[in-house]
Structure formats: C-alpha cells, structure tokens
Automatic annotation (TrEMBL):
InterPro entries, per the entry: AB_hydrolase_1, AB_hydrolase_fold, Epox_hydrolase-like
Organism domain of life: Bacteria
Protein name per its UniProtKB record: Alpha/beta hydrolase
Keywords: Hydrolase
Pfam family, one: Abhydrolase_1
Molecular function (Gene Ontology), one example: hydrolase activity
Length: 288
C-alpha cells in the first residue's frame, strides 16, 4: 500500500499521530472514520498524489496514534482537540494552509478544523456527515434505529467497550461486510489490529462520548454567534447508505453553516474510499 509514501509518527503538540504522507502539489489531509485507520485511503491517496501532497493520519485515539486519558466531559476526544492535532500535524510537515477531507467521524473533525482554524483551511470536503448538533436535534425513531450505537457508545453506565472487546471481530463484521475482499488484505490487516486492541476500542468509544457533550456545545456556541464556514465546501454522501433517508437533502442541513456548499451523492455503500475509489478521486480532483 501507499507506494512512494512515508510512514512515520509525528508529534503534534499534545499527542503523537501515526501518519502516512506523499505526493507533491497543494497539501490535502484525509481523515478517516470509525472504526477505520488511515489505511482506508489506500486506493485514493496514491491517485491524488500525482497532483497533491497527501497526508493521511490515524486520528487521535484510532489505529496507532496516541490515546490520552479522558476527563468526565471527554474533552480529550472532542473534535476541537482532534482538529488542533490536524493543524499541529500539518504545520509540522511545513503546510501553513491546506485542504481537509473527512469521512464519517473524520468529517466532524474536518469541519471543526475549518471552523476553529479558518486561516488554515483552504477547502473543505465532508463525506457522510453533518454537524453534531444538527444530527442530535433531528434525532427521531428512524435515526435511533439506524444509529443506535451512538447512544450505546455515549453512555457510561454500562461501558460499550466490554461488549465490543468480548468479540470485536464479530461486532465489526470483520469477516463478512468488512472482510479482506471488501477492504483489501493490507487495509483489512490494519483494521483488524485496531479493533483487537482494547485501548483503541476504548478511545474510539470516547470519540462518541464527546459528541452529545462538548462537541454539541461547541456547535451550539458557533451557531449562536452566527459563525459560518468561510472556505469553499463540498459534501459527498453514499447513496446506498441512509443519509437521504434520514435527512432528505443533506445539503440543506449544511446550508445554514455554509450557504455556498455544493455536493452530490456517490453510488456506494458507506465506506466510499473503499467501495467507490475512482468516483471519489474524480470528485475530489475536480473540487480541490
């Protein structure tokens, strides 16, 4: 995977991230979702590297990146903390301004990076995600049925980690819908190593615990202040997932945050980078 890319660990200030980077041209950072690692981009990053300097980290808590202990408000796993990691990483690599692409949980880190650090982010792409506060305020029985794990992970009375770690490969469908034929053998091996590590599972769950707590407050504060995203923004979503079923027009959810947003669906299940890499690369190249 990632021929011609460099794999290293980089100190971002508060944590050290495992990072793969390569290519040349304008910098773009690709942020994975749950429960993936940076290797989810193994078909996308090399295709972009002919035109861009591509940076693919494991998010804080995920894969082989640092997993700090969390406080009662789970602020160490807030998207604000993760966004600060991304800025620290890109500055360490010599990039003062850069584009950000995020999928799933990574989409929340991506838009938080653009909101908190508008001087740093030149363009923003979110995939299969809406602002945390928008998701929570739209929650109904359909959302709860489809995304019940949000609430299971977020509560702390009966820690989800104990259930997941009892049989992580079954929990994450590691030999069925997330098997090596779907993920590719090397990407699958990295995914397996992550979900088999109890510390990683705990940190991934902490990411969700931050959602209805500090992440929601950060969104509410910006919305109350009338803050909007300042950079050009593209949204992409998987048409074989449930974004349209839950939200109708996903772009309408984002317009109060970015009136000039553009976007479209891609004929793919949820993990677009693995299931429809060619279509994703084309969309990213045209926008970036």
């Amino acid at each position: 995977m990632f021929e011609g890319f460099t794999l290293e660990r980089i100190d971002t200030g508060e944590v050290t991230l495992r990072v793969r980077h390569g290519g040349s041209g304008p910098p773009v950072v690709l942020l994975h979702g749950h429960p993936r690692t940076h290797t989810t981009w193994y078909q996308v990053a090399p295709a972009l590297a002919a035109d861009f300097t591509v940076v693919c980290p494991d998010l804080r808590g995920y894969g082989q990146s640092d997993k700090p202990a969390a406080d009662e408000d789970h602020t160490q796993y807030s998207k604000r903390s993760m966004a600060a990691d991304i800025v620290g990483l890109m500055v360490a690599l010599g990039h003062e301004q850069f584009a950000v692409v995020g999928h799933d949980r990574g989409s929340q880190v991506a838009y938080r990076t653009a909101m908190d650090h508008p001087e740093r982010v030149s363009k923003l792409v979110v995939m299969d995600g809406v602002p945390v506060v928008e998701a929570l305020e739209r929650c109904d029985s359909d959302f709860a049925e489809a995304w019940w794990h949000w609430w299971f992970f977020a509560q702390t009375a009966k820690p989800a980690e104990r259930v997941i770690c009892a049989d992580p490969e079954t929990w994450y469908n590691a030999w069925t819908s997330n098997g090596p034929d779907q993920l590719g053998p090397e990407n699958h091996a990295d995914f397996l190593a992550a979900i088999r590590d109890p510390a990683t599972v705990h940190a991934m769950v902490e990411d969700y615990r931050a959602g209805p707590r500090c992440d929601r407050r950060h969104d509410e504060d910006y919305r109350a202040a009338g803050r909007q995203l300042e950079c050009p923004m593209l949204m992409l979503w998987s048409t074989k997932d449930d974004m349209e079923e839950i939200y109708g027009d996903p772009l309408a959810v984002w317009r109060p945050w970015c009136p000039g947003i553009v976007g479209h669906g891609i004929d793919s299940p949820h993990h677009i980078a693995e299931n429809a890499p060619a279509e994703l690369v084309q969309s990213l190249q045209e926008f970036l």
